[in-house]
Batch of 2 targets.
Target 1
Amino acid sequence: MNTILNLRKVIAVVSILMIYAPSSCAPAPQVPPTQTTILDTATPPPTATFTPAVIATQISEVSRTAEGTGNVIGLALWNNQPLTKITVELCERFQPSSGCGGKKYVTKTDENGYFVIRNVEPGGYVVVTKIIDTNVYLVYLNADQSQLQPVSAGRDLILDPWNIWKLDLHITFPKNGDSTSNAHPTFKWDPYPDAAYYRIFIAEEKDGAMHSILENEKVNGTEFTLEESLVTCKYVWLVQAFNAQDTIIAEVTPPIYEDAIYLPFFYITNLPETC
């Protein structure tokens, strides 16, 4: 991962691998925009409807660790409800393109969404799973925004509840690759079940870099008209759904190019001013 751009200041971070074709201010054959791999944070921790936090004694069969090792315990949620039977991996090293490296431990969440990774050798590890119904990795970040989770001998490392979201929020305008001559386009998407509000991100893509125009703007409906005037250029955008507990539950369905995912992009055309 060469470049990281913070797209979410509330509860999510998008890690961006910069893969660009030459920037253009006019429509061109579709080329892959910025590839994304989604990273999750544990801040702020949600309040699950069935238990306020991860408590080791509530998880069945948490055995004492083998000598010189530790346990890692967590709770996976979607929309504040438990995610059952999902795979969680503990990796000594992690790269989105190749997955886990070095020492690796694998488990699944139980019927209450809890997971226990037992007898882990001491050290720093990355905890990963995949976004629901996708092959997109989700990386757990602790309250200090660190990927590395410290495992100590003879101790249980209890992680904050982990919110995992879906990639099935559908945009209606502009769709990936669309063009418009409107300097103040109205962004639209389908309503998402249980969404209390949405947040939208818009950026200009120029000279192999993204320049933020709007970050995490809260929207109560399913459309948003940009007040700032756009110019003839290429842009990317993102919209996310949040529930009433301010937890992200869904994100726009990303376009796929040669098995990699990207932020949706669109063009502004035929305006006098260019990027």
Target 2
Amino acid sequence: MVTVLVQVLLYATASAYLAAFVLFLFYLTGHGKAATAQRFAVALVGLGAAMHASHIVLASLVLHICPIKGIHFALSVVSMLACASFVVMRMRYKIDSLGVIVAPLALTFLVGSQAAHADASAAGRLKSAVLPIHILANLFGEALFVLAFAAAVAYLFAEKQLKKKKVGGVLQRLPPLDVLDRAEHAFLLAGFPMLTVGIITGAMWAERVESGSTVDLWRSLFGYATWALFAAVLLLRAARGWRGRRAAYGTIAGFAFAMVVLVMYLVRSFGEPSAAQSGAGVTEAALSQGERSP
């Protein structure tokens, strides 16, 4: 019964994100009642985030897999946090239209989390006092970078439309350029300290847990490159006044590097046996126990 509820929450969350994306498209293109579509789209993102959080908690209890152990749940947590942050931050920055980017990204991360294995073998190795801090800092940082990326993409799109003198249509429903620029900077500024904590704490136990493979080496390099790119965007904005297009391109590049790191984690998870396949039987045993429970 509990496992059925876990699956229902998963499918309901995915459906909410997908429906929100469709409604955001209707809102931006002005089809039908755009204002109504906007309100329902935002509500669906919030509902999806709530169901998503419930799914994470319930699945963790049923499967006995901590969300911070492995990329399997990390992707899911990042997408949930990004949606929750969007719902909260939209009230301050009036960035409802960014949901057309946030919702499909959340859906993609959610689907990706189901494709990845829970790394039970790694879970036994990753024992360190700084591990929870390392993972949680990275998760919150990645969630804020999703919002910064969405604002950067919207900025470049809006600027291009203005250059073409297309002042109607989608552009009417996007925030002004200065609002997008400030929102992007705020999200990046909030996420950067968390990324820094993640880099520092990761370095503290990296030698103990890294296998030294080529994938591990490249993942570390891309992680440092991500930090350097975001640091450069913030530093150049403060020292040289870099704003607008330059900052947007830098933010998008940094986010792309961060996604490369996640993809490399996925590559490793696909290359390693899952808990059940390795003989640990964590998932199947937990599911069987859940099915026998009244």
